[in-house]
Structures are given as C-alpha cells and as structure tokens.
What does this fold into?
Amino acid sequence: MAQDDIHDHGLWTHDHRFLGHGHEHAERRARAAMLLTGAFMVVEIAAGLFFGSMALLADGVHMATHVGALGLAAGAYWLARRHVENARFTFGSGKFGDLAAFASAIVLGMIALGIAAESIGRFFAPIAIAYGSALPIAGVGLCVNLASAFILRDRHHEEEHHHGHTHDHNLRAAYLHVLADAATSVLAITALTAGLLWGARWLDPAVGIVGALVIASWSFGLIRDSGMVLLDAEADPQLARDIRATIESEMGAQVADLHLWRVGPGHRSLIVSLVSPDPLTAERVKDMLRARHPDLSHVTVEVAVCADCSPR
It folds into this structure.
C-alpha cells in the first residue's frame, strides 16, 4: 500500500494535535493584555522609585512579572502552534503552555522573596513617600489590571465551560496573575491612603510583605499544578477509577494496568492493559471510552485473552 494511502486511512492513523480549544484566540488575548500592561508597567515602576513608595514599587514589579508571564504565554501558544505537526514531540506540542506557566511561576517566587526582603528592610529604615503623587498612579494601575482581567476572563470562562476542570494552565497563569495584580493594587492604594491621611508610614512596607505573600502563594499553586502535568502525573484520579470500573463492569475484563495523563488543554491520553476471559477487541473498548469521555484524545488499548481468567 502506498504511503499516501496509509495516511488517508483514518482507521489506522491519527494526528497529535492536542492544542486547547480556541488556541489562536487565547494567543491574541494574551498578546493584547501584555501590550496593555507593559505600557503602564514602566510608568508605575518609575513612579514607585521616584516617589519612594514600596507598595507602589511592589505593585509595579508584580505588573512587570505579569508582562513577562503574558509574553511567555503568547510565546508558548506560538511555539505549540508552530510545532503542532512536529513528529519529534511524541504526544504533540500541547504542553508548551504548561512549561511556560512553570517557568513563570518560578520567576514569580523569586521576585516575591525580593519584594519581601526589601519591605522588611524598610521597616527598619523607612524613607519619605510622596503619597499624594503616588496614589493616582496606583489607581490607574488598578484600572489597567482590571482591563487585563476583562480581556482574559471570557476566554478563561469558555475554557472552563468546554473542559470542566481541565485547565489551560498557560491562560490560567495569566488570568490569575492579573487578579493578583489587582489585589496588590488595592492593597497599595489602601496603604498610600492611610499614609496620606494618618501618617501610617509602616503600612507601606507591610503591604509590600502582604503583596509578596500573595505572589508567593499564587506561584506555589501554579508550580504544583503545571509541574504535575510536566511530570505526566495521573491527570484525574477519579476519572481513572471511573474508567477502570466501567471497563470491568461493562466489558467483563480485568484492568491490569492503566495510565492516564494530560497532553494538552482539554486533552488526555490513556494507556490501558486488559485481561479478558472472552474475545474482546481493542477497538470496541476505544469506542466505548471515547463515547463517554470525549477529552480522551489519545487512547491505546492492549487486550490479553485468558479463558481461565475472570475479572475481580
């Protein structure tokens, strides 16, 4: 049979396009949010340094990390799209986003430590802060953060609607980041207002520490989630149990080995080995599983027939 005939025969071949739903749409949103926040990031960091506000500087640096995260996100979408047909990626290029999210989270954790250290230092060596000048800039920063969240929110909601708890970690990183930015902006505005009205200078570095804790918490969560995907950890233990129970109850076979992991946003791969007392084809098992679980994008089934064996 000619090579072209083999590739035209869908029964024997399949692709490995494990990109998330609306991949290019998400890439455009990430790029738009990056440009919006990048323009203001420079203003806020410069203002924090000029006016001597640690809270404003922490918010600006956090926004800078957000710009970097969005740049990584957009770049990961582009790389995944570029290499979607590259056979070197055994299970497709869908994990570029998880790799970008993991790298972004590590950088955020390091920056959180830096902000916390600088804020603690200012408790012991406070500096003068131009509260009246810093406040309007912090307010504009909050508006920019909310605008970025609006750009990303609809796409995030759509991903949740289509795939339940199967996140696009790349877009999730950007979305959660702008929410953390918005929270940090609110804290900065609160600290600057208190300093302006009541002279509570200690609140500025205190808010810097709180902001660092927020960033660190978000960083830890994303490192954990994206790291599990990169390590091919079991994608959904409950789903794995359901698949095992379904096969054993409806197919009369015993599951000897089962591996379920994520290969891209909204895409899972499954390898399962069965021992059946009766003749059972792999295609029959695949059809049943795909009918019930449409996000099983890559399914490999191995069946061993053993007349003397019986399921548990």
Summary: Confidence is low (pLDDT under 50) at residues 1-12, 155-165.
